[in-house]
Hints:
By secondary structure, this protein is mostly beta strands. The protein has a domain at 57-76 and 325-417. The chain has two helices and 25 strands. The protein has helices at residues 10-23, 137-140, and strands at 60-62, 70-78, 81-86, 92-96, 100-105, 108-109, 128-133, 142-151, 154-164, 169-180, 187-189, 195-199, 219-223, 245-248, 252-258, 265-270, 276-280, 317-319, 325-330, 343-347, 358-364, 370-376, 384-389, 395-399, 404-411.
Amino acid sequence: MKMTHWTGSFAVALMLVLAIVAGGAQQQPAAAANVPAAGRGATAPPPITWPSPPLPDGPIVLDTGIQHQIRLFVTRGFNQPFSMAFLPDGSILITERPGRLRIVRQGVLDPNPIEGVPQVRAQGLAGLMDIALHPRFIENQLIYFTYHKPSGNAGVITLARGRWNGTALTDVRDIFSATPSGNASRIVFGKDGMIYMTVGVGDPPAAASAQDPNDLAGKVLRLRDDGTVPPDNPFVGRAGYRPEIFTLGHRNALGLAVQPDTGAIWECEDGPNGGDEINVLQPGKNYGWPLLSFGRFYLGPRVSEKPWQEGMEPPLVFWVPAIAISGMTFYTGDKFPNWKNNVFVGGMRTGEVPRSGHLERIDFNDKWEELHREGMLRELQNRIRDVRQGPDGFLYILTAENDGALMRMEPFAPAAR
């Protein structure tokens, strides 16, 4: 089923999705509240309750495989931090999923949230999501963010922007609303000046939306900086397709990054119990969810017997079991020379087991073929929500905890005795 023939075979794709749903209905039914996992309606085994331990105040010195010793400086006081953006003066804006925007100045968290954030529906996985500065921020002071806008009993994934006045957001307005969803949303500005925005989708039966070209769920969107549709988007003018769509067939995308040398958009998304992926996005391509996956549903059955088929794009990197991937950055600085052009992703838990969160480093050859993976920060036993390279060349990491933290990673050379 090639992309050039995709429109004509959309009905076939939907029939296949429905067949997957029907075939796995007793294995992966829709979620039901307060139903024991062993009983009817269960979607996952009973959870393992084992909270992450609190981080020490730091600095924390750890060893890594190639760079060797690193030092972490810890800023605490966050509640479920989700994303960060670096201001020109060195301050860091950090979103908290419950709906607050915070600021860290010289390593110190301001106790007062930033004013100007609209009302956020923070329930389940929904809330205040990603944040990014306009590429011409120094000129226009515009800050963009995604959040779940309250709407009845749901939250609509919405892209908004406001103007930074040095202490607060002003003139905040919504510039694009996608669809009601409880899933995450990430944004990044490409080298073309466009905003790339993810809209997640879950498991069957909702997963069928990821293959529906007239539905924004399970898609990566491409928008102008005012929220309108660029005329060169791949589906502009095509009947039955939403023109905002850049790529389709995604599950729940929790990381976006721009490849430094080519400008390509890289996306990482969660599978269920297995099948986390990194994809290199190409205009108009289909990345397969839920028709294709390397993963399993939470109760054990495979998502699909086929991990790949012609006309759909295989992942560049995948994980079995899942690491609950979240956040992604390319390292291009000079503070960690052994990590040049490596990709870092956060992991919140491995194989559905708590206290297994970590930071993962992946290096590639000159054709961007994977060579090594290194799990780091496992000693902390904390969930890693996001990772970014700062303007200073250090790595900054957010933990996905109720007692969340920002960590600045630096190389550490112990003084000679």
